[in-house]
Automatic annotation (TrEMBL):
May be involved in fusion of retrograde transport vesicles derived from an endocytic compartment with the Golgi complex. The gene is Sft2d2. The lineage of its organism: Eukaryota, Metazoa, Chordata, Craniata, Vertebrata. Keywords: Membrane, Protein transport, Transmembrane, Transmembrane helix, Transport. It comes from Pteruthius melanotis. This is Vesicle transport protein. Belongs to the SFT2 family. GO terms for biological process: protein transport; vesicle-mediated transport.
Amino acid sequence: MDKLKRVLSGRDAEEPSGLAEVIDSTSLGWGTRVKGFIACFAIGCLCSILGSCLLWIPKKGLVLFAVFYTLGNISSIGSTMFLMGPMKQLKRMFEPTRLIATIIMLLCLILTLCSAFWWRKAGLALLFCILQFFAMAW
């Protein structure tokens, strides 16, 4: 039946390539995209709020805040990929008008996790979290 539809529509000249089949089979419907966006965004907000609550734990609180805040930001960025697609999201992030903010934000995400896990500098992790916020707002 599909072959008949291709013949009648004039698309029978060539069989679709393997890549085209993969792209067609992995595309999401609009309802699924919205659900994925809401789920990722909710997880991102929950991680950020949880990080803020964990900030007040003695000794390890600042490190936990940095980790959960960073994971929340990563999840929030990932949520918008559901709406516009990963390639369009990356193209928009790396447009000339947003390039500096994107580089600063990605660098601060990495440096926050490095300062929390490897360098064990809580003040530095907090500084990078603040810079993450400003880069995302920019």
